[in-house]
Predict the 3D structure of the following.
Amino acid sequence: MTTSQFPVLLIAIPLMLVPVAFFVSQAKLSVRGFAIASLGLVAMLAYAPLVAALGFGLVLPLEARMGGWGPELGIVLMLDPLAALLLPITNTIIVLGAAIGFPAGERTPIPYFPLWFLLAAGSNGLIVTSDLFNAYVFLEIIAICSHALVAYRGDGYAFESAFKYLIAGLIGSAFILWGIIALFAATGALSLSVIVDRLPGAPPALVAAGFSLIVAGICVKLAIVPFHSWKPDGLTGAPPSSAGAISGVVLSAVLVLMLRVLVGLGGIGGPAQTLSAVSPFPVILTFLGAVSVVVGHSMALVQGRLTRMLAYSSIGHFGAMLLALALVTPAATAAVVFHGANHAVLKSGLFFLCAAAATERGTDRITGLSGYLARRPLELAACAILMLALVGLPPTVGFASKWAMIVEVVRAGGIVRALLIGGGSVIAVVYYLRALHTMIWDGAPRQLPDLGDPRARVTRLALVVGAGYTLVGFVGAGFIFAVASSAVSVLLGGPQ
Amino acid sequence: MRRTLALLISGSIVALGVTTLMLTGTLSDAIRPVDYTLRTVRDTGAINAVTAILFDYRALDTLGEATVIFAASSVLAFLAPRSSASMLSVRLSMLILYGIAFLLPFIMVFGFGTIVFGHVSPGGGFTGGVMLSSSVVIFAVVYSVGGQQSYVLPILVKKYVENAAMFVFVSLGFIGLFSGGAYLANALTGIPLGEPGSLLSGGLIPLLNIATGFKVGMGLALIIISLFAE
Amino acid sequence: MLAPTILTGAIVLTGCAFYGLITHRHMIRLVICLNILDSAVLLVIVLLGYEPDAAAPIVRQADLQYVLGLPHALSLTAIVISACTTALMLGYAVRVHRLRGTVYVDRLTRWRG
Amino acid sequence: MIGVAAFQAVTPFGPGLLGLGQAAIVDDAAVLTAAGFLVFCVFAALFARESGRERTRGRRLLFRAGVALQLLAATTLPFAADLLQFFILWELVSLGAVAILLCESGRLRLLRIYLPIQIAAAVALIVAIALHSVAADGLLLPASGGLAAGQPFALFAVLVKAAVFPLHIWMVQTYPRVSPASTVILSAFGTKSGVFAAYRLLPGLAGLELFGALSALLAVLYALRQRQLRPFLTFHIASQIGYMIAGIGGVAAASQLAGVYHLSNHVMYKGLLLMTAAVLVRRFGTEDMYTIRSHGASTNGPLFAAALIGALAISGVPPFNGFVSKALLKAHAGSAASYWLMVAASVGTAMSFTKFLWLAFLGGHIHKGVQDEAAPPLLKRWSGPAELTAMGALATLCISMTVLPVFLFPELQLAYPFSRASIIAGLWPAALGCAGYFLFYPQLLRVFKLLPDGRPAGQVSLEFARGVIRTMRSLHSGDLRDSIAWMLTGLILVWLLTLVL
């Protein structure tokens, strides 16, 4: 076994754990303990490449050839700095989400933990794969798991959400599959590294169709306006812990796919510039991003439910990222990677808090949560820090990444974009402050948290982790940004 | 209003597609994909190129799709209430009942055969798995879901088989990792590829085929039975 | 020419699926439309490997002209995924019908704005 | 052309004002504007003398000082060639207006609206002047072609000062809220100085023509909805300013001059209309047309004649001065779009003045959906002799100024404005508007309800944002099929852009 085969462990071990968990449950042992311990093991594995690269001089793009075949014939997994940066984040979110969302007291839903294993396998696979069709397969695995996690509460609204989410997600997948097939027809290859070599000789109309279909499909998955309207509906009926995991994990994984396709294949920028001398994607992404920022933040302003507010705010954040991405400079792209990683942590943290609050109050309406934070100093501090970070105020990591994004955008000449991003933040201040105000001051504080519930403790752990990352990351922002920059430079070099 | 809009939208998508097609011309101008066919025998020992691609070159995809079936079956099993509904309200005639009882073993044997000979003849784990599941499904249709569950394969057994098959598939991948240097490696592990065209050829491919066959068979059976029970 | 005709047919099939997705409000019909959409893609994938007068890719003679194997493998994978997601959608649809008492998506709209 | 030297003598301070010692620009436009201001001011002062008797002594002095300041500054401004001088005169016009506003009862509220706006415009203008002086290395205004740099700032200053449609709100908030005589004075100088500044600083600016024509139409829509007399007329000022800006934005020199000619005409007929409005307000004690209607004002023949002449002139009906300048503007329109926008605005103008005459003077019927109000007690007095003289003089000017094109546009040789085609082109929009009022006004009222109100800008923008969010919310219907339709639309967009770009 060689080091370069490491990425496959991140897929194979969670998959292996699924039947093992089944056997454990049949042996009347505690699935919960086993599952959380083993998910934790996977998460620790996910930290390994980053630690090894930084501390022990591991040279990073790890290239795992499945079955020993090269990119021409088989599937190659690539663990580049981009994956190394995002894998720890997504896997940590999965462990915490699985622990928080575990339905205590109810009859254990049979597939609950297997779904989290499969989600881990799918998202890790999507993050490390460099083969388009393989990416599609992992995308479908993620889709099925996340829909099931949306539905697992089992009431009519949960199934309604799951159905809407599933249909929309499948349409997105269908777009992506059409795009992959178009690229396959044009270049005769499925591996990104082969496609990038063959693009110059391919029929341009077919390549354009393939790229636009893939981008449209990814926009569906990322919920970019006008592809977005399923998302708030899809998350409203979901348990907030699942919604948090979906926001954090799925969006990060799909963002990686987008970067690999658009930046890696030269759709925007890149030394290869393989699409054409003047690629249309900067214009398209600018347009979509601008609309997303406006619609996302202004719709978040008028939401009465916390989950929907957070969902719309995600739309705005990804719009801002697209705006920066469309500038095609490596530094701006690095800022986007940085912000994407931060957004995953911060949004999941808030969703987990929302999960705890909704479990206690039985509703996620902001008015129904009034006074929830009043006598919970830890939750209050964490919530305030996370919201500050999402708005982009110091001293948080959210400030660092948003600032990096705005600075790079201005440096590349996009004043209007910078104003849009900043304007979105200004709107975000209003709705976050309103929610925070209601949750602190309105209404009388009710009973104190029940520390006996293990989920409450996990939630507190998650909040401490999230807020800790937010504060520590502010100090180490330059370091994270350096990792993101190296990720982008590897990406721009084209997949090896 | 909605219909006009729908017509407009789908019409423009069709127009865009056809435009792309016309701009591209015949696909013979495009770069052709790699032709696996001629190197299959040398590389894998299997003479069925499709099976070789599915279980060797792109075995990770297969693992992924098996996972999709697994996920779908476990979600659907969770969704379905444990009721024993009869598929048809009228009882079928004795002729059909006995006829099916006579046919079922043959269907199963044919399914097993398709799985086992997947690398040397048309077929493979998926096809054979579907045949296996179809035997279960036919049983459920004819003799009611409850009867099928109690006599032929209880749900728990199906889940055991499915999980075991998944375990085997992933473990077979690890063999390649530990002895061949690459996950899901076949020839690199040193396993003899055998005489192409014979049953014992293709290295690990037949084993993966069998694992996949059981997994698909049980998974699809679970899915369809669950939908019946709905 | 066979290929352009069938490709156009697949594109038209996609259009039909999209038309149905926008106009129909019955959940099962939406699922069927998605199925049609998948079938159109499958048609294209299979067509990519097709060559006139070529044999099935089971290599018994080295000098024979064979159909490309890769698109077949891809289509097999896509078929399985499509079948699984269809089953899932049907399962959800049945549950929604049972718990919410309607099969029409426009009656489901609980969340606006 | 005509008597430039004579007018130089008439202009109170002469061209070399304030000792800045630059050669004055004396051209047709400057002379026309200054003469218009001067003649109008004579009659307006006459009108205000009789009309403003109720003021206290100190206020009357301040009022007169303000009128004098405005007159002096506004008549000198057209000749200013030095930009600093120009700026100071522009400020003096505003200062005169402030003095007049100080004589009013609700002065604090009025100034709270008026002052910040004027200061913003002044700051923008000084920035533009600074930028120009850097670019052109000097403060001298080029004889033609406008500013060399800083156009965006100058544009903002001009649009605010001239109260062009979307920036007209300050005017609607102040002019109708002062005493009727003050409205007559104020309406002439402030905004028209802004328009003349546009002629000097930004002639032929790209896009200005279309913008002006569009704002003429939009302002007319707002005017059509009003039922209070002076707000109604104030919105029409904004609309007519749209015409002038459209003319000044034209590329041809003749088009720009026609804009200035329209300015001068407008001062006359709008003054006349505001005077009749002042008399009506005083007589009936209300601004509401629907209340005045129940008395029927047509018993006073001279007043009705004045209102009729003003209405015909503003509607562009031959042979009044409004017709001539509008015909010239349309003749020089740079694009079909701006031509048709102007025609549409003419239709709207005719329609709204049909409403004015029909309701206020002829006591016509009221459409459904409009509440009639109980009439307040009448005051005895109609108009006095001085007021009648002023109105008569202005009415005469409204007819006699039609000969001015002979001197201004010698190359036209009277052919264009008085040809049969142009007379028909002036008549049919007016007839259409007249008929449209009787046929479609109730339907139009329903359309007007959709327009945002003329409230302060902050409130309007808040309303706008609310409307946008409401629209967005209604688009998120929660129907799965709608989200699918949106997705597919997005796909089409992305694909199309990829193919096209």
